[in-house]
UniProtKB/TrEMBL annotation:
Its main location: cytoplasm. This is Imidazolonepropionase. Residues 64-383 form the Amidohydrolase-related domain. Catalyzes the hydrolytic cleavage of the carbon-nitrogen bond in imidazolone-5-propanoate to yield N-formimidoyl-L-glutamate. It is the third step in the universal histidine degradation pathway. GO terms for biological process: L-histidine catabolic process to glutamate and formamide; L-histidine catabolic process to glutamate and formate. 4-imidazolone-5-propanoate binds at residues 81, 144, 177, 245, 322. Belongs to the metallo-dependent hydrolases superfamily. HutI family. N-formimidoyl-L-glutamate binds at residues 144, 319, 321. GO terms for cellular component: cytoplasm. It comes from Photobacterium aquae.
Amino acid sequence: MGLLITNANLTSATPGETGYAPSTATAIAIHNGLIAAIGDKKRCLQALSSTSTITTIDVQGQLITPGLIDCHTHLVFAGNRAREFEQRLSGVSYQTIAESSGGILATVSATREASEETLYQLANERLQGFKNNGVTTIEIKSGYGLTLADECKMLRVARRLGQQADIKVVTTLLAAHAIPPEFTGNADGYIDHICQAIIPAVANERLADAVDVFCEKIAFTPQQCRRVFETARNYGLAIKGHTEQLSNMGGSALAARLGAYSVDHIEYLDTEGVAALAACGTVATLLPGAFYFLGETQLPPIDQLRRLDVPMAIASDFNPGTSPIASLRTIMNMACTLYRLTPEECLRGVTIHAAKALGLDHDRGEIRVGMAADLAIWRLSHPAELSYCIGVPDLTARIVDGHYFPQ
Ligand code: NIG
Ligand code: FE
């Protein structure tokens, strides 16, 4: 079956002239879930000549972009941290709360207690918020289980979410998120457990596509993260890191040199770190939601990243502690207002660069012949509007792997 879209205002996100300013009256031919042709209607029909049935959708000048990609979320968890939010507003820091067994560990308790079914229902409700924002691919991390059984439980939930036809899910093991109560005072012992038991089992069951760490004073040292990364690589898993969020530990350069797809947060990244990302082709993933929600003031080194042409992705970091914001569009706006990114950088940040942060840039994140037909159709006329307004229900439909899902 073929799908022919006509009269689109097309923003492909591909670097170059047509990547941003929309090209008008464009047709797109979709065959077997892939983009078969782009351009005038006649040529697109030709590309579909071998197909017996063709469905045509005239989008009447609406804007079409690649489906949005949220490349960093912690969507699966139970409970919430509204009381911690109140504590922080009265002046207690995120670090202090973490050190007194609150923070991440509070969500770990609630998540361990929740059944797999409950976690699925909770995450699925949140996922709807992202779909309503035009998201067609989402990354989901574990990291609130911190035992083999509970990390696997979270990852199974993420995999099950990905069985829905209208979303692609990439899963990431984040066992090195915090030191669990069973290993208090013995972070190295927990790292041993991650490397000897959790990563092998998760790899064996194919529950994760990548492995992440939290490299920070309140979490794990660069040496400990290196062990996790090396083990992950030995099991054929991709790596990425929560690095330089609250202080400069050198985690980003370490991750980049070991081949990380992305390093995320990076408010405290220094010049040497930026150079390492540039040299290694690592994506800098910016998470302005966490910056906003924690009331941070240290800005990531955006100008240096620009100067060295480091691809910048933007993601929600959706989680109960630092970014309970289930809206990638809001995050795009924050990237403009808080980090001074341009709307064009934001568009690339949630499409082509987000795809690269997930190792998916060979087939997602751009509207290009041969790539997966993942598209978002908007009642908008220019892609700058995606970063400009918040909360306006301007999405008409998403197309995922060539299947049409109206709003
Ligand atoms: O990306 N920095 C570490 N992890 C999450 C926060 C997790 C939490 O507080 O529950 C983040 O900000
Ligand atoms: Fe995160």
